[in-house]
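Bug #2210: token dump truncated for Tetratricopeptide repeat protein 7A isoform X6?
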Amino acid sequence: MRELREVLRTVETKATQNFKVMAAKHLAGVLLHSLSEECYWSPLSHPLPEFMSKEENSFITQALRKPQLYEGDNLHCPKDNIEEALLLLLISESMATRDVVLSRAPEQEEDRAVSLRNAAAIYDLLSITLGRRGQYVMLSECLERAMKFAFGEFHLWYQVALSMVACGKSSYAVSLLRECVKLRPSDPTVPLMAAKLCIGSLHWLKEAQCFAMMVIQLGEEAGEFLSKGYLALGLTYSLQATDATLKSKQDELHRKALQTLERAQQLAPDDPQVILYVSLQLALVRQISSAMEQLQEALKVCKDDANALHLLALLFSAQKHYQHALDVINMAITEYPENFNLMFTKVKLEQILKGPEEALVTCRQMLRLWQTLYSFSQLGGLEKDGSLGEGLTLKKQSGMHLTLPDAHDADSGSQRASSIAASRLEEAMSELTVPSSVLKQGPMQLWTTLEQIWLQAAPGPPPSGLLCLLPVSSFPCSCLSFFLPPCPSAPPPESVRRALPGQEVGSPGPYSPGTCVA
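Reproduced locally. Full output below:
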């Protein structure tokens, strides 16, 4: 290592540039694969005692004349092996991409292949280095610079696509994966990745259906991924049924979804994920008993799976067994204490079994958990790191993602409990609500979760509902408040009546049944 470092510190000439690129790449590989962070020593310090003898014995001959080194007062010194490897690879990338052969003339084909192979090796090491630190945005920017000489090179195209997936740029990733399919049409993993993105964050169901059909059309060539292709197609049909407006169209798509998922189960009978989605599809078409049987088979394989336990609780609630459902949710929250979807369902069940006051206690716990997990001082760093997505696409929620079930109308809440809840929520809001200027920091998904927590507590008499909707109003362009169930008819308080001129007590307004507070 010391010899390689001294070589890299020398003032280079035109003849030694290629050699220094190879030396930098080799040293970066040593730092990443052969040296841990505990054994690292900086370039300006001496090696650890256990490495001192190895470093001294590694020199066979000494140079008769020492080369000129870079010296100065403001030279950067890396603090760990990852930082030094990243610095070396960024320097190597700038030198390698500058000298890469772009000509596609037949006589330069060999030189082009060599330069492309060297550049690809550097980008592979960059992917490892930046992936360790979660710097996926920076990785995607580096890989984008390689696209100028990546024509027809599947590996580089796929690397760029995966980096876009990691930093949350799903739409760009789908476009890149579409090109990867053209370069390697026999690889089933590429259209499966594209279908996953289209089903998940983008909600591009037509495109997801096309990508899933690509896998199915491969037939036996897809191997074990054929069942995944049918699974993706079944999920697409089910989501299309959720979005459909005509009852006949919904029934047709649900039938096709169930048939496709059952075909996936025939190809992979022991896959718990396939069994889980078959159970979920049966639940969506209200075949609760059959769904419970399928889910029991899935729970035999994955007893502690959060989605399976969540679906079990939802099936119990569909059968009006609310106490059993709450017991399952509490058990699941014990295993997954940071799962907000489980807590949303717990709020609904507590609202039915124990009343609104107990449900509001859980809402407050969710607010404190949100504050603990997503510290405001770290949101800017999270966004820059790109470790979280570019934002959550606001779309119609569906059961295929095992998210919050439909809200229940709270008709049995007492006025006293609601007034207590209003005071408690006002206190929680003053403690946990952040100014609108902070909302610009961090990924949108964090703030959407916070918004959903407030909206969970909003249904109820006007004072408490209004207090819960005040934080939601600070989220720009939010449509989630339109999905609130109607509040009971009641005259608004004097302070609210002054804020809403032109409304008479008892006249149709924001608090009348059949309207939504937005």
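Output looks complete on our side. Residues 1-133 form one domain. Marking as cannot-reproduce; reopen if the truncation happens again.
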